[in-house]
């Protein structure tokens, strides 16, 4: 629950270094899609994340699932990044570490802030075509065919690689990491770590072009319940009810309603 997360009251950002780390559930579906594409077409898979040092464990899990390589972007200077900053930093890291990559797969959204913005923003930063909530992917030559279900209708899109796709959580059910995979991932595999300097990001630039969102306040909204008793004949009670709550009801239903009194004037 977001309310149980450790917040930094001053900056209004999440203390990710104190939060229990786990691989974002939606990212596991993206990882599974990458593994199935490699099995079908051949590919090399790089898992990349921006986070506190503890995020290394999540990358080892991705290696244990079958990723060939892992890159951690980690620097205190980058802490508290909003989605704009996150996607522009990821874009730099991808251009530096995986130049010429054909396909970027993201989860549809994260389990903490769920904005679903990073994928499409990253595609913008990299100037590649993108589609969200993919449930099936096929590749023919440089052409990617994406089947997705959006607003209860299914569509198939085609685009040229390089491209970016966010993967639906309804498909590509993630496999479990094998013991051998876990052993290799935690015992052997080297993880590349990039700091702000390696990405050419200075404190001044961070100040100027960093996060665009400012968190004003983080608080837990308390739901207050209050009973209101309206007595009397049904018609009068209904009229009184409408008089009292007309504006709230109109706001909820998105159209104005007239009370009996108004109708008579
Ligand atoms: C409760 C809460 C509310 C927030 N509200 C906002 C807000 O309104 N606006 C805003 O700009 N920021 C907001 N943030 C900050 C935001 O969470 C971070 O910027 C975060 O890194 C990315 O946004 P997201 O979690 O919504 O990602 P999403 O866009 O939901 O993530 C989609 C996918 O993008 C990829 N991705 C996301 N983050 C990373 C990463 N760090 N490294 C690698 N891949 C990644 C993953 O594949 C993920 O599945 C909020 C944070 C919290 C905890």
Give structural notes.
It is a single chain. With about 260 residues, the protein is α/β, with parallel strands linked by helices. The chain has two domains: about 210 residues, HUPs (Rossmann fold, 3-Layer(aba) Sandwich), CATH 3.40.50.620; about 40 residues, no CATH class. It contains eight helices and ten strands. The strands form three sheets. Strands 5-9-6-7-8 form a five-stranded mixed sheet, sandwiched between helices. Strands 3-4-10 form a three-stranded parallel sheet, sandwiched between helices. A two-stranded antiparallel sheet has the order 1-2. Bound molecules: flavin-adenine dinucleotide. The site of flavin-adenine dinucleotide has 28 residues, from α1, β3, α3, β5 and α4.
Write a brief caption for the model:
The chain is 35% helix and 20% strand. It has 265 residues and is of the alpha/beta class. The mean pLDDT is 88.
- SSE succession: EEHEHEHEHEEEEHEHHH
Helix-and-strand structural type: alpha/beta
Q: Quote the average pLDDT.
A: 88
Relative strand content: 15-25%
The whole-angstrom Rg is 24 Å
How far do the termini sit from each other? 50 Å
CATH domain fold name of the largest domain: Rossmann fold
Identify the overall geometry: globular
Percent range of helical residues: 25-40%
Poorly predicted runs are none
- What is the number of beta strands? 10
Describe the strand arrangement of the main beta sheet, using strand numbers: 5-9-6-7-8
- CATH level-4 homologous superfamily of the largest domain: HUPs
């Amino acid at each position: 629950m977001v309310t149980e997360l450790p917040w930094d009251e001053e900056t209004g950002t999440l203390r990710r270094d104190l939060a229990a780390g786990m691989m974002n559930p939606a990212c596991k579906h993206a990882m599974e899609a990458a593994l199935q594409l490699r099995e079908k077409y051949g590919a090399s898979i790089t898992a990349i994340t921006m986070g506190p040092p503890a995020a290394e464990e999540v990358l080892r899990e991705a290696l244990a699932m079958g990723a060939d390589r892992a890159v951690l972007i980690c620097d205190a200077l980058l802490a508290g990044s909003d989605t704009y900053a996150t996607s522009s930093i990821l874009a730099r890291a991808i251009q530096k570490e995986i130049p010429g990559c054909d396909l970027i797969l993201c989860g549809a959204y994260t389990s903490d802030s769920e904005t679903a913005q990073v994928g499409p923003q990253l595609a913008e930063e990299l100037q590649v075509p993108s589609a969200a909530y993919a449930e099936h992917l096929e590749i023919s030559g440089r052409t990617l065919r994406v089947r997705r279900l959006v607003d209860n209708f299914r569509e198939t899109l085609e685009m040229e690689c390089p491209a970016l796709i966010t993967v639906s959580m309804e498909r590509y059910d993630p496999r479990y990491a094998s013991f051998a995979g876990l052993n290799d991932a935690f015992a052997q595999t080297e993880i590349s770590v990039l700091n702000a300097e390696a990405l050419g990001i200075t404190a001044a630039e961070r100040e100027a072009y960093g996060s665009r969102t400012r968190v004003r306040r983080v608080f837990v909204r308390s739901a207050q319940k209050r009973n209101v008793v309206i007595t009397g004949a049904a018609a009068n009670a209904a009229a009184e009810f409408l008089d009292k709550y007309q504006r709230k009801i109109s706001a909820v239903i998105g159209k104005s309603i007239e009370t009996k009194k108004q109708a008579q004037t």
